[in-house]
Amino acid sequence: MNDNRYELNxxxxxxxxxxxxxxxxxxxxxxxxxxxGACAVMALERxxxxxxxAGGVSRMSDPKMIKGIQEAVSIPVMAKCRIGHxxxxxxxxxxxxxxxxxxxxxSPADDVYHIDKTRFNVPFVCGAKDLGEALRRVNEGxxxxxxxxxxxxxxxxxxxxxxxxxxxxIARLTSMREDELFQAAKELGVPYDLVQxxxxxxxxxxxxxxxxxxxxPADAALMMQLGAExxxxxxxIFKSGDPKKRAAAIVKAVTNFNDAxxxxxxxxxxxxxxxxxxxxxxxxxMAERGK
Amino acid sequence: MKIAVLSVQGAFIEHEKMLSLLGxxxxxxxxxxxxxxxxxxxxxxxxxxxxxxxxxxxxxxxEPLEKKIKEGLPVLGTCAGLILLAEKLSNDANTYFGTLPVxxxxxxxxxxxxxxxxxxxxxxxxxxxxxxxRAPFVESAGADTEIIARVDGNIVGVKYxxxxxxxxxxxxxxxxxxxxxxxxxxxxxxxx
Lengths: 291, 192
Fold this sequence. Notes:
- The complex is a heterodimer of chains A (291) and B (192).
- With 291 residues, chain A is of the alpha/beta class.
- Chain A is built from 13 helices and eight strands.
- Helix content of chain A is 44%, strand content 12%.
- The longest helix of chain A is centred in the middle third of the chain and has 19 residues, at 157-175.
- Chain A starts with a helix and ends in a 25-residue tail after the last helix.
- The model of chain A has no long low-confidence stretch (mean pLDDT 94).
- Chain B has 192 residues and is of the alpha/beta class.
- Chain B has five helices and twelve strands.
- Chain B has a seven-stranded mixed sheet with strand order 2-1-3-4-12-11-10. A three-stranded mixed sheet of chain B has the order 5-6-9. A two-stranded antiparallel ribbon of chain B has the order 7-8.
- The radius of gyration of chain B is 15 Å and the shape is globular.
Protein backbone atom coordinates (compact mmCIF):
# COMPACT_ATOMS: atom_id res chain seq x y z
CA MET A 1 0.00 0.00 0.00
CA ASN A 2 1.51 3.34 -0.96
CA ASP A 3 1.10 6.54 1.04
CA ASN A 4 -1.48 7.94 -1.36
CA ARG A 5 -3.70 4.94 -0.89
CA TYR A 6 -3.56 5.26 2.90
CA GLU A 7 -4.42 8.97 2.68
CA LEU A 8 -7.34 8.25 0.34
CA ASN A 9 -8.56 5.55 2.72
CA UNK A 10 -8.43 7.90 5.71
CA UNK A 11 -10.22 10.51 3.61
CA UNK A 12 -13.07 8.13 2.74
CA UNK A 13 -13.66 7.86 6.51
CA UNK A 14 -13.68 11.67 6.66
CA UNK A 15 -16.50 11.68 4.11
CA UNK A 16 -18.53 9.37 6.37
CA UNK A 17 -18.30 11.73 9.35
CA UNK A 18 -21.52 12.99 10.85
CA UNK A 19 -23.19 9.88 9.52
CA UNK A 20 -24.64 6.58 10.64
CA UNK A 21 -23.31 3.21 9.46
CA UNK A 22 -25.95 0.50 9.77
CA UNK A 23 -25.68 -3.29 10.03
CA UNK A 24 -27.75 -5.04 7.35
CA UNK A 25 -28.19 -8.70 6.50
CA UNK A 26 -30.15 -8.54 3.22
CA UNK A 27 -30.37 -6.29 0.13
CA UNK A 28 -33.86 -5.27 1.33
CA UNK A 29 -32.50 -4.10 4.67
CA UNK A 30 -29.66 -2.33 2.85
CA UNK A 31 -32.21 -0.40 0.79
CA UNK A 32 -34.18 0.53 3.91
CA UNK A 33 -30.94 1.74 5.52
CA UNK A 34 -29.95 3.79 2.46
CA UNK A 35 -33.40 5.36 2.22
CA UNK A 36 -33.31 6.17 5.92
CA GLY A 37 -30.06 8.09 5.38
CA ALA A 38 -27.28 5.65 6.29
CA CYS A 39 -23.90 6.96 5.05
CA ALA A 40 -22.69 3.35 4.63
CA VAL A 41 -23.89 -0.16 5.41
CA MET A 42 -22.14 -3.07 7.09
CA ALA A 43 -23.07 -6.29 5.28
CA LEU A 44 -23.15 -9.31 7.55
CA GLU A 45 -25.04 -12.58 7.77
CA ARG A 46 -26.22 -12.15 11.32
CA UNK A 47 -26.41 -8.98 13.36
CA UNK A 48 -24.43 -9.04 16.62
CA UNK A 49 -27.49 -9.71 18.83
CA UNK A 50 -28.19 -12.89 16.83
CA UNK A 51 -24.52 -13.90 16.81
CA UNK A 52 -24.60 -13.57 20.58
CA UNK A 53 -27.83 -15.62 20.83
CA ALA A 54 -26.68 -18.33 18.40
CA GLY A 55 -23.23 -18.83 19.94
CA GLY A 56 -20.65 -20.94 18.10
CA VAL A 57 -17.98 -19.70 15.72
CA SER A 58 -18.89 -16.63 13.75
CA ARG A 59 -17.07 -15.98 10.44
CA MET A 60 -16.90 -13.64 7.46
CA SER A 61 -20.18 -13.52 5.49
CA ASP A 62 -20.81 -15.30 2.20
CA PRO A 63 -19.31 -13.10 -0.57
CA LYS A 64 -22.43 -13.69 -2.66
CA MET A 65 -24.58 -12.16 0.05
CA ILE A 66 -22.21 -9.18 0.28
CA LYS A 67 -22.28 -8.73 -3.51
CA GLY A 68 -26.08 -8.71 -3.41
CA ILE A 69 -25.90 -5.79 -1.01
CA GLN A 70 -23.23 -4.01 -3.12
CA GLU A 71 -25.62 -4.19 -6.06
CA ALA A 72 -28.61 -2.96 -4.07
CA VAL A 73 -27.16 0.35 -2.83
CA SER A 74 -24.94 3.20 -4.06
CA ILE A 75 -23.47 4.12 -0.64
CA PRO A 76 -20.23 2.47 0.58
CA VAL A 77 -20.52 -1.16 1.67
CA MET A 78 -18.41 -2.49 4.54
CA ALA A 79 -18.00 -6.09 5.70
CA LYS A 80 -16.40 -7.82 8.65
CA CYS A 81 -13.55 -10.27 8.81
CA ARG A 82 -12.24 -12.06 11.89
CA ILE A 83 -9.40 -10.53 13.88
CA GLY A 84 -6.14 -11.75 12.36
CA HIS A 85 -7.82 -13.56 9.46
CA UNK A 86 -5.95 -11.99 6.57
CA UNK A 87 -7.28 -14.54 4.08
CA UNK A 88 -10.84 -13.43 4.78
CA UNK A 89 -9.64 -9.85 4.30
CA UNK A 90 -8.04 -10.81 0.95
CA UNK A 91 -11.38 -12.24 -0.16
CA UNK A 92 -13.21 -9.06 0.84
CA UNK A 93 -10.64 -7.00 -1.04
CA UNK A 94 -11.13 -9.21 -4.10
CA UNK A 95 -14.84 -8.38 -4.21
CA UNK A 96 -13.93 -4.66 -3.92
CA UNK A 97 -15.46 -3.99 -0.56
CA UNK A 98 -15.26 -0.29 0.37
CA UNK A 99 -14.16 -0.88 3.98
CA UNK A 100 -13.15 -3.98 5.96
CA UNK A 101 -14.06 -4.13 9.66
CA UNK A 102 -11.52 -6.37 11.41
CA UNK A 103 -14.06 -7.07 14.08
CA UNK A 104 -14.27 -8.52 17.56
CA UNK A 105 -17.95 -9.29 16.81
CA UNK A 106 -16.75 -12.35 14.87
CA SER A 107 -14.76 -15.13 16.53
CA PRO A 108 -11.07 -14.15 16.48
CA ALA A 109 -8.92 -16.20 14.10
CA ASP A 110 -5.68 -15.19 15.80
CA ASP A 111 -5.33 -14.49 19.51
CA VAL A 112 -1.96 -12.73 19.15
CA TYR A 113 -1.65 -10.92 15.83
CA HIS A 114 -3.97 -8.54 14.07
CA ILE A 115 -3.91 -8.30 10.27
CA ASP A 116 -1.04 -6.31 8.76
CA LYS A 117 -3.40 -3.84 7.14
CA THR A 118 -0.58 -1.97 5.38
CA ARG A 119 -0.51 -4.84 2.86
CA PHE A 120 -3.98 -4.04 1.59
CA ASN A 121 -5.32 -1.38 -0.75
CA VAL A 122 -8.82 -1.36 0.73
CA PRO A 123 -9.29 0.51 4.00
CA PHE A 124 -9.80 -1.05 7.42
CA VAL A 125 -11.77 0.07 10.45
CA CYS A 126 -10.92 -1.50 13.81
CA GLY A 127 -12.42 -1.40 17.28
CA ALA A 128 -10.62 0.01 20.31
CA LYS A 129 -11.35 0.35 24.03
CA ASP A 130 -8.62 2.87 24.75
CA LEU A 131 -5.95 5.01 23.12
CA GLY A 132 -3.30 2.28 23.17
CA GLU A 133 -5.50 -0.13 21.23
CA ALA A 134 -6.54 2.61 18.80
CA LEU A 135 -2.95 3.64 18.03
CA ARG A 136 -1.77 0.02 17.72
CA ARG A 137 -4.47 -0.54 15.11
CA VAL A 138 -3.50 2.69 13.31
CA ASN A 139 0.12 1.54 13.35
CA GLU A 140 -0.99 -1.72 11.70
CA GLY A 141 -2.66 0.32 8.95
CA UNK A 142 -6.23 0.94 10.12
CA UNK A 143 -7.62 4.10 8.49
CA UNK A 144 -10.60 4.46 10.83
CA UNK A 145 -11.29 3.58 14.47
CA UNK A 146 -14.52 2.88 16.33
CA UNK A 147 -15.07 2.31 20.00
CA UNK A 148 -15.74 -1.35 20.65
CA UNK A 149 -18.64 -0.81 23.03
CA UNK A 150 -20.38 -4.10 23.57
CA UNK A 151 -22.01 -5.28 20.35
CA UNK A 152 -25.44 -6.87 20.28
CA UNK A 153 -26.47 -5.70 23.72
CA UNK A 154 -28.34 -2.45 23.15
CA UNK A 155 -26.48 -1.29 26.27
CA UNK A 156 -24.52 1.89 25.63
CA UNK A 157 -22.45 1.81 28.84
CA UNK A 158 -19.35 0.28 27.30
CA UNK A 159 -19.28 2.55 24.28
CA UNK A 160 -19.44 5.48 26.72
CA UNK A 161 -16.66 4.00 28.86
CA UNK A 162 -14.42 3.45 25.83
CA UNK A 163 -15.03 6.91 24.37
CA UNK A 164 -14.41 8.64 27.71
CA UNK A 165 -11.26 6.60 28.29
CA UNK A 166 -9.91 7.46 24.86
CA UNK A 167 -10.68 11.16 25.32
CA UNK A 168 -9.06 11.23 28.75
CA UNK A 169 -5.91 9.60 27.41
CA ILE A 170 -5.80 12.01 24.46
CA ALA A 171 -6.17 14.95 26.87
CA ARG A 172 -3.39 13.53 29.02
CA LEU A 173 -0.99 13.22 26.07
CA THR A 174 -1.89 16.70 24.88
CA SER A 175 -1.01 18.27 28.21
CA MET A 176 2.30 16.43 28.60
CA ARG A 177 5.72 18.00 28.26
CA GLU A 178 7.43 16.78 25.10
CA ASP A 179 10.14 14.97 27.05
CA GLU A 180 7.44 12.85 28.71
CA LEU A 181 6.10 11.49 25.44
CA PHE A 182 8.78 8.79 25.10
CA GLN A 183 7.68 7.16 28.32
CA ALA A 184 4.00 7.57 27.32
CA ALA A 185 4.72 5.70 24.07
CA LYS A 186 6.31 2.91 26.07
CA GLU A 187 3.37 2.68 28.46
CA LEU A 188 0.79 2.68 25.67
CA GLY A 189 2.77 0.14 23.67
CA VAL A 190 2.70 2.28 20.54
CA PRO A 191 5.27 4.04 18.31
CA TYR A 192 6.54 7.45 19.37
CA ASP A 193 5.46 9.23 16.17
CA LEU A 194 1.79 8.38 16.78
CA VAL A 195 2.03 9.63 20.36
CA GLN A 196 3.61 12.81 19.05
CA UNK A 197 0.77 13.21 16.54
CA UNK A 198 -1.84 12.97 19.30
CA UNK A 199 0.16 15.37 21.48
CA UNK A 200 0.26 17.97 18.70
CA UNK A 201 -3.24 17.55 17.29
CA UNK A 202 -5.28 16.55 20.37
CA UNK A 203 -6.98 13.82 18.37
CA UNK A 204 -6.47 10.41 16.79
CA UNK A 205 -4.72 10.44 13.41
CA UNK A 206 -7.87 8.89 11.90
CA UNK A 207 -11.63 9.37 12.17
CA UNK A 208 -13.21 7.87 15.31
CA UNK A 209 -16.81 6.59 15.36
CA UNK A 210 -18.81 5.17 18.27
CA UNK A 211 -20.10 1.61 18.12
CA UNK A 212 -21.45 -1.18 20.26
CA UNK A 213 -24.78 -0.82 22.06
CA UNK A 214 -26.29 2.28 20.43
CA UNK A 215 -30.06 1.74 20.18
CA UNK A 216 -31.84 5.11 20.35
CA PRO A 217 -31.51 8.66 18.95
CA ALA A 218 -30.56 9.72 22.47
CA ASP A 219 -27.75 7.12 22.58
CA ALA A 220 -26.45 8.46 19.27
CA ALA A 221 -26.61 12.06 20.51
CA LEU A 222 -24.83 11.06 23.73
CA MET A 223 -21.94 9.52 21.80
CA MET A 224 -21.69 12.53 19.45
CA GLN A 225 -21.61 14.92 22.41
CA LEU A 226 -18.85 12.80 23.91
CA GLY A 227 -16.82 13.45 20.77
CA ALA A 228 -17.66 10.61 18.37
CA GLU A 229 -17.42 11.69 14.72
CA UNK A 230 -20.29 9.41 13.68
CA UNK A 231 -21.92 6.20 14.86
CA UNK A 232 -22.31 2.55 13.91
CA UNK A 233 -25.69 1.06 14.75
CA UNK A 234 -25.77 -2.70 14.60
CA UNK A 235 -28.56 -4.62 16.20
CA UNK A 236 -30.34 -1.45 17.38
CA ILE A 237 -32.19 -0.88 14.11
CA PHE A 238 -33.31 -4.18 12.68
CA LYS A 239 -33.99 -5.64 16.14
CA SER A 240 -36.45 -2.84 16.89
CA GLY A 241 -40.20 -2.52 16.26
CA ASP A 242 -40.03 0.04 13.42
CA PRO A 243 -36.58 -0.13 11.76
CA LYS A 244 -37.31 2.47 9.08
CA LYS A 245 -38.46 5.13 11.49
CA ARG A 246 -35.79 4.42 14.09
CA ALA A 247 -33.04 4.47 11.46
CA ALA A 248 -34.18 7.83 10.09
CA ALA A 249 -34.48 9.27 13.61
CA ILE A 250 -30.95 8.19 14.54
CA VAL A 251 -29.60 9.78 11.33
CA LYS A 252 -31.19 13.11 12.23
CA ALA A 253 -30.07 12.82 15.84
CA VAL A 254 -26.46 12.52 14.69
CA THR A 255 -26.75 15.69 12.56
CA ASN A 256 -28.38 17.75 15.31
CA PHE A 257 -26.95 16.04 18.39
CA ASN A 258 -26.93 19.27 20.39
CA ASP A 259 -30.57 20.22 19.87
CA ALA A 260 -32.62 18.68 22.69
CA UNK A 261 -35.94 20.00 21.33
CA UNK A 262 -35.39 18.23 18.03
CA UNK A 263 -34.11 15.11 19.81
CA UNK A 264 -37.33 15.03 21.84
CA UNK A 265 -39.38 15.09 18.64
CA UNK A 266 -37.20 12.41 17.06
CA UNK A 267 -37.56 10.15 20.08
CA UNK A 268 -41.37 10.10 19.90
CA UNK A 269 -43.33 7.07 18.73
CA UNK A 270 -40.39 5.00 17.58
CA UNK A 271 -42.05 1.75 18.59
CA UNK A 272 -40.24 -0.81 20.62
CA UNK A 273 -36.47 -0.47 21.03
CA UNK A 274 -34.38 -3.63 20.90
CA UNK A 275 -34.85 -5.44 24.19
CA UNK A 276 -31.18 -5.31 25.14
CA UNK A 277 -29.10 -7.10 27.71
CA UNK A 278 -27.24 -5.41 30.56
CA UNK A 279 -23.50 -5.89 30.70
CA UNK A 280 -23.82 -7.91 33.93
CA UNK A 281 -26.11 -10.39 32.18
CA UNK A 282 -23.78 -11.41 29.37
CA UNK A 283 -21.30 -14.25 29.42
CA UNK A 284 -19.23 -13.13 26.45
CA UNK A 285 -17.46 -9.78 26.37
CA MET A 286 -16.65 -9.26 22.71
CA ALA A 287 -14.71 -6.09 23.56
CA GLU A 288 -12.08 -8.23 25.31
CA ARG A 289 -11.16 -9.81 21.98
CA GLY A 290 -8.06 -8.40 20.24
CA LYS A 291 -6.09 -5.82 22.23
CA MET B 1 -17.40 38.10 4.22
CA LYS B 2 -19.18 35.11 5.70
CA ILE B 3 -19.57 31.67 4.14
CA ALA B 4 -22.16 29.06 5.11
CA VAL B 5 -21.12 25.41 5.06
CA LEU B 6 -23.83 22.78 4.78
CA SER B 7 -23.09 20.58 7.80
CA VAL B 8 -25.73 17.85 7.87
CA GLN B 9 -23.17 15.12 7.08
CA GLY B 10 -19.71 14.69 5.54
CA ALA B 11 -16.44 16.61 5.45
CA PHE B 12 -17.74 20.04 6.42
CA ILE B 13 -15.11 20.70 9.11
CA GLU B 14 -12.40 20.35 6.46
CA HIS B 15 -13.98 23.20 4.46
CA GLU B 16 -14.26 25.34 7.59
CA LYS B 17 -10.55 24.79 8.21
CA MET B 18 -9.68 25.89 4.68
CA LEU B 19 -11.75 29.05 5.10
CA SER B 20 -10.17 29.73 8.45
CA LEU B 21 -6.69 29.39 6.89
CA LEU B 22 -7.78 32.10 4.47
CA GLY B 23 -9.04 34.26 7.33
CA UNK B 24 -12.67 33.97 6.24
CA UNK B 25 -15.52 33.59 8.69
CA UNK B 26 -17.79 30.56 8.28
CA UNK B 27 -20.71 28.94 10.05
CA UNK B 28 -22.52 25.60 9.91
CA UNK B 29 -25.99 24.98 8.53
CA UNK B 30 -27.59 22.05 10.32
CA UNK B 31 -31.19 23.22 10.54
CA UNK B 32 -33.57 25.90 9.35
CA UNK B 33 -32.87 28.47 12.04
CA UNK B 34 -29.21 28.51 10.98
CA UNK B 35 -30.38 30.28 7.81
CA UNK B 36 -31.55 33.34 9.70
CA UNK B 37 -28.18 35.07 9.35
CA UNK B 38 -26.83 36.71 6.21
CA UNK B 39 -24.08 35.02 4.19
CA UNK B 40 -22.13 35.65 1.00
CA UNK B 41 -21.59 32.14 -0.26
CA UNK B 42 -22.49 28.51 0.36
CA UNK B 43 -20.31 25.38 0.36
CA UNK B 44 -21.84 21.95 -0.23
CA UNK B 45 -19.13 19.56 1.03
CA UNK B 46 -18.10 16.00 0.27
CA UNK B 47 -19.96 13.19 1.97
CA UNK B 48 -22.83 10.97 0.91
CA UNK B 49 -25.19 12.78 -1.45
CA UNK B 50 -28.12 10.47 -0.62
CA UNK B 51 -27.79 11.35 3.07
CA UNK B 52 -27.38 15.09 2.48
CA UNK B 53 -30.24 15.20 -0.04
CA UNK B 54 -32.58 13.48 2.38
CA UNK B 55 -31.58 15.61 5.36
CA UNK B 56 -31.85 18.84 3.33
CA UNK B 57 -35.50 18.01 2.69
CA UNK B 58 -36.40 16.63 6.10
CA UNK B 59 -34.77 19.48 7.99
CA UNK B 60 -36.61 22.05 5.80
CA UNK B 61 -33.38 23.41 4.35
CA UNK B 62 -33.99 22.46 0.75
CA GLU B 63 -36.40 25.14 -0.43
CA PRO B 64 -34.76 28.17 1.20
CA LEU B 65 -31.32 27.13 -0.11
CA GLU B 66 -32.67 26.33 -3.57
CA LYS B 67 -34.23 29.80 -3.69
CA LYS B 68 -30.97 31.47 -2.67
CA ILE B 69 -28.95 29.53 -5.29
CA LYS B 70 -31.47 30.42 -7.99
CA GLU B 71 -31.24 34.07 -6.95
CA GLY B 72 -27.49 33.94 -7.57
CA LEU B 73 -25.93 33.08 -4.22
CA PRO B 74 -22.39 31.83 -5.01
CA VAL B 75 -22.08 28.13 -4.27
CA LEU B 76 -19.20 25.65 -4.33
CA GLY B 77 -20.13 21.95 -4.49
CA THR B 78 -17.39 19.36 -4.01
CA CYS B 79 -18.00 15.69 -4.90
CA ALA B 80 -21.35 15.00 -3.21
CA GLY B 81 -21.95 18.75 -3.42
CA LEU B 82 -21.61 18.60 -7.22
CA ILE B 83 -24.22 15.82 -7.24
CA LEU B 84 -26.58 17.99 -5.19
CA LEU B 85 -26.26 20.81 -7.73
CA ALA B 86 -26.54 18.71 -10.91
CA GLU B 87 -29.58 19.05 -13.13
CA LYS B 88 -29.51 15.34 -13.88
CA LEU B 89 -27.74 12.17 -12.73
CA SER B 90 -27.11 9.57 -15.41
CA ASN B 91 -27.22 6.55 -13.10
CA ASP B 92 -29.69 7.68 -10.43
CA ALA B 93 -33.30 8.81 -10.77
CA ASN B 94 -32.95 11.33 -7.92
CA THR B 95 -31.99 14.94 -8.41
CA TYR B 96 -31.58 17.61 -5.76
CA PHE B 97 -31.16 21.34 -6.42
CA GLY B 98 -30.83 20.75 -10.15
CA THR B 99 -29.53 24.30 -10.65
CA LEU B 100 -26.31 23.39 -12.48
CA PRO B 101 -26.86 22.38 -16.14
CA VAL B 102 -24.74 19.22 -16.17
CA UNK B 103 -25.34 15.50 -16.29
CA UNK B 104 -23.30 13.79 -13.57
CA UNK B 105 -22.41 10.12 -13.15
CA UNK B 106 -22.29 9.04 -9.51
CA UNK B 107 -19.43 6.77 -8.35
CA UNK B 108 -18.04 7.17 -11.86
CA UNK B 109 -14.66 5.67 -10.91
CA UNK B 110 -16.17 2.66 -9.11
CA UNK B 111 -15.69 1.67 -5.50
CA UNK B 112 -12.97 2.77 -3.05
CA UNK B 113 -10.27 0.84 -4.95
CA UNK B 114 -10.90 3.27 -7.83
CA UNK B 115 -10.15 6.33 -5.68
CA UNK B 116 -7.00 8.27 -6.66
CA UNK B 117 -4.88 11.43 -6.40
CA UNK B 118 -3.68 13.56 -9.23
CA UNK B 119 -2.65 17.10 -10.12
CA UNK B 120 -4.32 18.98 -12.90
CA UNK B 121 -4.94 22.45 -14.25
CA UNK B 122 -8.12 24.32 -13.28
CA UNK B 123 -8.99 27.37 -15.41
CA UNK B 124 -8.47 30.52 -13.37
CA UNK B 125 -6.79 28.58 -10.56
CA UNK B 126 -3.72 26.83 -11.94
CA UNK B 127 -2.43 23.35 -11.31
CA UNK B 128 -3.73 21.97 -8.01
CA UNK B 129 -3.72 18.62 -6.18
CA UNK B 130 -6.99 16.69 -6.47
CA UNK B 131 -8.32 13.84 -4.33
CA UNK B 132 -10.98 11.71 -6.00
CA UNK B 133 -12.82 9.55 -3.47
CA ARG B 134 -15.57 7.34 -4.89
CA ALA B 135 -15.95 10.38 -7.08
CA PRO B 136 -18.49 11.34 -9.73
CA PHE B 137 -17.65 13.10 -12.98
CA VAL B 138 -19.58 15.27 -15.40
CA GLU B 139 -20.75 13.37 -18.48
CA SER B 140 -21.99 16.42 -20.33
CA ALA B 141 -22.36 20.10 -19.63
CA GLY B 142 -24.88 22.63 -20.93
CA ALA B 143 -23.79 25.13 -23.60
CA ASP B 144 -23.46 28.01 -21.11
CA THR B 145 -21.56 25.95 -18.56
CA GLU B 146 -17.84 26.60 -18.54
CA ILE B 147 -15.64 23.51 -18.22
CA ILE B 148 -12.83 24.47 -15.84
CA ALA B 149 -11.11 21.11 -15.31
CA ARG B 150 -10.62 17.75 -16.98
CA VAL B 151 -8.76 14.65 -15.86
CA ASP B 152 -8.02 11.98 -18.48
CA GLY B 153 -10.57 13.63 -20.75
CA ASN B 154 -13.37 13.48 -18.18
CA ILE B 155 -14.94 16.72 -16.96
CA VAL B 156 -14.22 17.16 -13.24
CA GLY B 157 -14.82 20.90 -12.78
CA VAL B 158 -17.51 23.27 -14.08
CA LYS B 159 -18.69 26.83 -13.53
CA TYR B 160 -22.12 28.21 -14.37
CA UNK B 161 -22.75 31.82 -13.33
CA UNK B 162 -22.07 31.75 -9.58
CA UNK B 163 -22.12 27.97 -9.21
CA UNK B 164 -18.85 26.02 -9.11
CA UNK B 165 -18.95 22.23 -9.07
CA UNK B 166 -15.94 19.91 -8.82
CA UNK B 167 -15.91 16.15 -8.52
CA UNK B 168 -12.75 16.07 -6.36
CA UNK B 169 -12.10 17.19 -2.78
CA UNK B 170 -10.10 20.44 -2.52
CA UNK B 171 -10.89 20.41 1.22
CA UNK B 172 -8.55 17.52 2.04
CA UNK B 173 -5.40 18.34 0.08
CA UNK B 174 -4.22 21.34 2.11
CA UNK B 175 -4.22 23.56 -0.99
CA UNK B 176 -6.50 26.58 -0.61
CA UNK B 177 -6.41 27.83 -4.20
CA UNK B 178 -9.81 26.54 -5.29
CA UNK B 179 -11.35 28.08 -2.18
CA UNK B 180 -9.67 31.39 -3.04
CA UNK B 181 -11.18 31.15 -6.52
CA UNK B 182 -14.63 30.55 -5.01
CA UNK B 183 -14.19 33.45 -2.58
CA UNK B 184 -13.42 35.78 -5.52
CA UNK B 185 -16.83 34.84 -6.98
CA UNK B 186 -18.42 35.57 -3.60
CA UNK B 187 -16.65 38.92 -3.42
CA UNK B 188 -17.83 40.02 -6.85
CA UNK B 189 -21.38 38.92 -5.97
CA UNK B 190 -21.58 40.68 -2.61
CA UNK B 191 -20.40 44.02 -4.05
CA UNK B 192 -23.44 46.13 -4.94
